[in-house]
Please model this.
Amino acid sequence: MTPAIAAAAIEDFRETFAAIRAEVARAVIGHAQAIETILIAFFAGGHVLIEGVPGIGKTLIVRSLAEALNLSFNRIQFTVDLLPADITGTRIINEHPDGRRELGFVPGPIFAHLLLGDEINRATPKTQSALLEAMAEQQVTVAGSSYRLEAPFFVLATLNPIEMEGTYQLPEAQLDRFLFKVVLEYPSEAELVQILATTTVADPPAVRPVLPADRAAARVEELKRLVREVLVAPHVEHYVAALVRATTPAGARGEGEAESDVRRYVTYGASPRGAQALVLGAKVKALLDGRPHVTYDDVDAVAAAALGHRLVMSFAAAAAGVAPAAIVERALAAARRRRT
Model:
């Protein structure tokens, strides 16, 4: 790819990203940083876990994103009685006019480009695990047969931090499947006023498609391939590795305060998937800044979303009120000292 072609491709990516973000913002008031982080994960090819109290726009964000991208969208409300077949689909007996009977597959709601798993922690672990194969392999297996999911496939799962009765904590292995975790903050007073002004009228703002319907999926895949072509220098790769190692008790070898806190408060640190999430998210950030290469700042910008949910905290952390975000900040401080 020549420099001129690369510059044109980067500018096209930036314009498309900005147009999608602007359309989502027409329907969603506030949450600008969260929307950008979700879009970064989407073009990086990962999935997102969203945490927030009810009624602050989680479903609206996902639906608006699907409308702006012109892609298919399904929503699953997770409940304790939901079964894996309710997500993936099932096989039923079809009877033909001539009397013949045969087993046919009826696809479940997981067969969509964008899937919202609402309150995923309300379903049993068996049902939660129905998403694992789809998120990792982009396919589902039913009765011994595998069915491919059409690309792009993007899962946004929500967690309700209140009403924890009757919920099932997500296993660490499933949390690790999410590229980023995003926390939606409660809207400010000014944002609440704007929400009232735009959602209680006869014609609320509508999201307009940015991508053409006949090429939307292919266009997204092109942009995702461009992300993969962004360059990462060896010194940045070493920085990512040092940052991820700094979140683990074994990797926090120094005698500084940051290293001591990691050893005291963290049971298990981020996995290699955390390092991959850092690099992929940083590649999107580089494109948004008009660059074909990743810098340290790109990595730092996505560290909180990429690493926080991957840390398994100790009982000492719970007793001291130390959150994963604080540990990520300490790990960043330790890793920055190793920059070249």
Notes: The chain is about 50% helix and 15% strand.
